[in-house]
Amino acid sequence: MTAGVLAYVGLGSNLDGPEDQVRSALDALSKLPKTRLDRHSRLFRTLPWGKLDQPAFVNAAAELTTQLSARELLDALLAIERAHGRHRDGTRWGPRALDLDILLFGDQRIDEPHLHVPHPYIAERAFVLLPLADIDAQLLVPGHGRVGELLENVDTEGCVALDAP
Questions:
Q1: pLDDT for 164
Q2: Residue from 16, 20, 38, 86 carrying the catalytic annotation
């Protein structure tokens, strides 16, 4: 594949076999057109965020090189979610079979309907920062700083790596 944009995707699940859902989604990411899955983090079990009365999540992050636009990548991610049983009904922070979010898309800042990059809560969420740091703690989040430094300012209690380093 010729050059593309380096993008990072957050993955999460807390329903229907969360570990299997995340592993299957990583496989689906590796098959996206005009896209290469370069590497991914370990899987992490994390506490729910926002709505606390639900099962723990399994989270990961993936690094992709893609020739897709950010909007095309988002559409592909939504298709993967649907294939994994996700039905978006407007509920925020609730249980889900699979959640895929574009966290970073090169050094771009995008503010469009349903597409905000960097992800608006990226600097506040251990379940995003831990997997990103597992890939590259020196990764720069535009407008926020380096992932490793951001991670120092969030509560990681209750977050556990499920795979060996």
A1: 66
A2: 86
Residue-range domain boundaries for the chain: 5-161
Maximum Cα–Cα distance across the chain: 45
Residue entry with tokens 């893609």: 66
CATH of domain 5-161: 3.30.70.560
pLDDT one-digit tens code per residue, 56-112: 889 999 999 999 999 999 999 999 999 987 666 556 656 778 999 999 999 999 999
In the three-class reduction of DSSP (H, G, I as helix; E, B as strand; rest coil), residue 123 is classed as helix
- Please give the backbone phi and psi of residue 103, each rounded to the nearest 5 degrees, phi first: -90, -45
**109 is known as an active-site residue:** no
Which residues contact residue 80 at a Cβ distance below 8 angstroms, ignoring those fewer than 6 apart? 25, 28, 29, 98, 100
Catalytic site includes residue 86? yes
3-state secondary structure 2-43: CCCEEEEEEEEECCCCHHHHHHHHHHHHHCCCCEEEEEECCC
99 carries an active-site annotation: yes
